[in-house]
Structures are given as structure tokens and as C-alpha cells.
């Protein structure tokens, strides 16, 4: 394959029944800058928000269950969950709850030493906010 990367960007496309509310939540409250936006016929609208560096995390069912147990204490996540690294998990969680997100689990220190919170957010997305705080505990 040579030195050039085949995939240059990961873009997650989410349909939101209340487009304006979802856009305000993710852009204005969570703080994802708007890169581009387009309107089309029939009221079609899209905004492309910059979420920083993207990774695709593949887990098996046992790992997904373990992460749910550590972060929430029970199985709650659907097959796909978005995770956003933030500088201040507690502050961001409070802001998102104030903006209408449902708190699933408060900020919790994980065995891998990140501070993680879980929320149900607009457009039906289940998300983790995480703040890297140090190395992995052995």
C-alpha cells in the first residue's frame, strides 16, 4: 500500500429529527466547531462539525460489557457509542446536562486512569466524555 494512507477522515453521519437543537447542542454546548454547512432542496440541511482526531475503536462483546460496568455499573450502551475527549469531564458533563442531555453515569475514574461520564444526547446518541488523567493502573 505504500506510504499514503487510504483513509484520510472518519465521518460519522447522524440523522437528527430536531436538526437545530442537535446542531446547537453539539456545536454550541459541546464545542465542536462548524467546518462547513449546506442546504438543499426540500429543506435538506447538513453541518459538518470538527471533532478533532478520529479513531475507530473495535471491541468484542466482553470488552464492551466491561467498559459499561466500569463507567456505568450496568449494561447500557448500544452497539455504537461515541466518545469525546475533553479537557474537563465534570464541567463538560454539567454543561451538556444543562443543555438537555440525560446523565447516565457521572464522571468516574476508570482503571486506565481516565475520568469518564456517560450521557444520552440529542439525535439519540449515547456518548462518553473522557478526560485523560495518567497511565494505566496495574
TrEMBL record:
Coiled coil residues, start to end: none
PROSITE patterns named in the record: VOC
Gene3D superfamilies reported for this sequence: 2,3-Dihydroxybiphenyl 1,2-Dioxygenase, domain 1
InterPro entries: Glyas_Bleomycin-R_OHBP_Dase, Glyas_Fos-R_dOase_dom, VOC_core
Domain VOC per the UniProt entry, residue ranges: 8-132
SUPFAM superfamilies noted in UniProt: Glyoxalase/Bleomycin resistance protein/Dihydroxybiphenyl dioxygenase
Record's protein name: VOC family protein
